[in-house]
Amino acid sequence: MPSLTRTARSGRIQRDERREAVERRVLAAVDQLLTGGSTFTELAVARIATEAEIARSTFYRYFPDKSRLLIRMAELATDEQFSAAEHWWTSSHADGEAGVVQAMREMIAGSRAHAHLLRALSEVAAYDQDVGSYWRGRLEAFVTLVCTRLQADRTADRIPDSVDIPSTAIILTCMVERSIDFLLGTATVDDEQMARSLGRAIWLTVYGDAPNPS
């Protein structure tokens, strides 16, 4: 006879799997509707539920309102982008400028895959307090990560004392976030050129002309 602990654990796993499946379906549905020309503000819950092939009651079970929906969709859509950037900032940087350029390629590609959703996030964050607080918190957490790395490089004498760590971390984080947001809405610069330009700007700001920080 299965133990109560094992049964409870199995039940939690099944619930988590159901939640993930529903969230992925809703993310795909929202992406599809936004790609089709709808704006996020005009998307009705009933329409999203229909596109995702779920009941409205199921939708509300996981998303109390559209603000929470957008926040969760943004978490899913930006997970790989943040992971790529976090990986570079915590790596050895032995591959020099090429490493950060590759990280920018991955961030841009991931953002491009959910371009309409991320544009909606940027727009809604400007007037929705919950969405705005979420996105600012996400960026502030990344600024903290960059500060930690820059401080470690300062301690190891890899960057000069002239680099102000707090302001540099803010500038680099916002430069990448705003540049990619702008890129998604324009065709004047291609993705590869943006990746190379962002990578070079980051590298020169932190390490100057050094081929690698070692």
What do these coordinates show?
With 214 residues, the chain is mainly α. It folds into 2 domains: 1-63, Orthogonal Bundle (Arc Repressor Mutant, subunit A), CATH 1.10.10; 68-214, Tetracycline Repressor, domain 2. Helices cover 76% and strands 0% of the residues. The chain contains 9 helices and no strands. The longest helix is centred in the N-terminal third of the chain and has 32 residues, at 4-35. The chain starts with a helix and ends in a 7-residue tail after the last helix. The relative contact order is 0.10. The model has no long low-confidence stretch (mean pLDDT 91).
Q: Which structural class best describes the helix and strand composition?
A: mainly alpha
The name CATH uses for the topology of the largest domain is: Tetracycline Repressor, domain 2
The CATH superfamily of the largest domain is identified as Tetracycline Repressor, domain 2
CATH architecture of the largest domain: Orthogonal Bundle
Round the Cα radius of gyration to an integer and report it: 20 Å
Calculate the mean pLDDT score and round it.
91
Keywords: DNA-binding
DNA-binding region: 44-63
Protein name: TetR family transcriptional regulator
Organism: Nocardia aurantiaca
Q: Could you list some keywords that capture this structure?
A:
214 residues, mainly alpha, Arc Repressor Mutant, subunit A
